[in-house]
Amino acid sequence: MRCQDILDKIEARYPRKYACDWDNVGLLAGSREREVDTVYIALDATDEVVDAASECGAQLLLTHHPMIFGGLKSVTTDDYVGERLIRLIRNDISYYAMHTNYDVMGMAELAADMLDLKDRKVLEEVLDGEGIGRVGDLPRSMTLEECANFVKGRFGLPNVKIFGEPEKQVQRAAICPGSGKSEAKPALSMGAEVYITGDIDHHTGIDMADCGMAIIDAGHYGVEHIYIADMEHFLKENCPELRVYTAPVKQPFQVL
User: Fold this and answer.
1) Residue 74's CB: how many other CB atoms inside 10 A?
2) What is the pLDDT of residues 146-178, one digit of tens each?
3) What is the four-CA torsion angle of 46, 27, 15, 134, rounded to 10 degrees?
4) Is the model's pTM score more than 0.85?
5) H-type alpha helices, 103-201
6) CATH topology of domain 3-98+225-246
7) pLDDT > 90: what percent of the chain?
8) HSE-CB for 98 with a 13 A CA cutoff
9) Could you tell me the pLDDT band of residue 224, with boundaries at 50, 70 and 90?
10) Which residues, if any, are the signal sequence (predicted)?
11) Which class does domain 102-223 fall in?
């Protein structure tokens, strides 16, 4: 199967037009004409992932986060991006990233499904009524502590960080997978009593708690790792002739 044939199926479901202006999605390295029978899926194109894609014989690496964001003036082994790109090209592996277009057309609803949110609304509209994040009602009213444990269970997390009183009752929830600091105020304005996201800084956390909205920081990876299994299912359903390998789900850091 040609690489481009796979990308056509992906982009029909997750069109690139829904990516944010600052983003860098699409084929970032390799050939569209490459014949592909094996795909490796991961959240990030780390050294470990590049090695694993090569070891399993993948001709296509598919990630959520783009390894290349800004313009490159050189591709050398002097920096980690160049070194990874050289390894991908040397092993004839095409590399495709689907970031905010997937956030809008896949991740938002998928994350809301994980929490069984009802009466959902888009948190931030991007295009054609579609957007990043969702706001809705949890299955029942619960304390912030109960909600934190609910999030941990649904996303398979060892821990989360909360801003707000553990005994606070919450039901109206907003969720924005990834780094959600910029969506905290929109979540508050839409009546969320608890906001679930990642990468919340000190000031945003305490300020939102003072405004009456608790925050559960489940980590950037903690909520977005659901991309891996979702895209595995997509490829197996839409390209059943492919062999699909996935990066293991594991936190990129440890809390001691």
Assistant:
1) 7
2) 999 999 999 999 999 999 999 999 999 999 999
3) 10
4) yes
5) 108-114, 144-155, 184-189
6) 3.40.1390
7) 96
8) 28
9) very high
10) none
11) alpha beta
